[in-house]
Design goal:
This protein is mainly alpha-helical. 66% of the residues lie in helices and 4% in strands. The chain has a three-stranded antiparallel sheet. Strand 2 and strand 3 form a beta hairpin. Helix 3 runs antiparallel to helix 4 and helix 4 runs antiparallel to helix 5. The protein is rod-shaped, with a radius of gyration of 49 Å. It starts with a helix and ends with a helix.
Length: 216
């Protein structure tokens, strides 16, 4: 009982109306000389064309969607009216037989155009906007190339020039030892502030001392 209360009354009404319309189209097909499974296929084709046209109108309200929607609606409504007693179904007119006999081709054509023609129809306005007044397709402007972030180049540091005494004090050796390194050309000598003074590179002295300790 709770499940029945949850049913939407509008949905129930739609199901009843669809069933009645389905039966009316079947009766018209039988009266026009169609029997067996063919009589049941007619209402299916009418309802499917109506659904496809409605889906087309929800996405794109164009003339094709409205045309085939009205065609399917006319077929369904016409069958409902014809079964109301205004037509002698025991002796149907010739035009009704011809209409029922030609309906499958009409339904096939309408469904094919609605399904396979929707993509091209939707894309045509987009292509029109993409073209220039002369008809040439305008390409979107190219984005400027991103500038590469270059890391600052570190300039090599110059030598730290000190006297023999300062180098010996920093390395824990005598000044004479540093002088011997320079005299034997183990480290490079640099001119000092005066003509009689000599300077050496402190880093070079540290490197040479490290090599001597490892060699020892």
């Amino acid at each position: 009982m709770r499940a029945l209360k949850r049913l939407d009354p509008i949905l129930i009404q739609a199901v009843i109306a669809a069933a009645l319309s389905f039966a009316h189209i079947h009766d018209i097909a039988v009266a026009a000389g169609q029997d067996g499974w063919k009589a049941w296929a007619y209402p299916v084709s009418v309802d499917l064309l109506l659904v496809v046209a409605w889906k087309r109108l929800r996405k794109l309200r164009d003339g094709a969607g409205w045309f085939w929607f009205l065609v399917a609606m006319a077929a369904s409504l016409g069958a409902n009216v014809a079964t109301s007693g205004v037509m002698d179904l025991a002796h149907p007119p010739v035009w009704l037989r011809l209409t029922v006999a030609g309906w499958p081709a009409v339904a096939f054509l309408g469904g094919t155009l609605l399904v396979h023609g929707s993509k091209s129809t939707v894309e045509e306005p987009r292509e029109a906007h993409a073209q220039s007044p002369q008809g040439a397709v305008s390409e979107p402007p190219a984005r400027p190339a991103e500038e590469e972030v270059k890391e600052p180049v570190k300039e090599p540091q110059g030598p730290v020039l000190v006297s023999y005494a300062d180098a010996g004090e920093a390395l824990g050796v005598d000044a004479a030892t540093v002088r011997g390194w320079a005299f034997n050309e183990h480290v490079k000598k640099y001119p000092g502030p005066t003509a009689n003074t000599v300077r050496v590179d402190l880093a070079e002295c540290k490197t040479y001392q490290s090599r001597r300790l490892v060699g020892a």
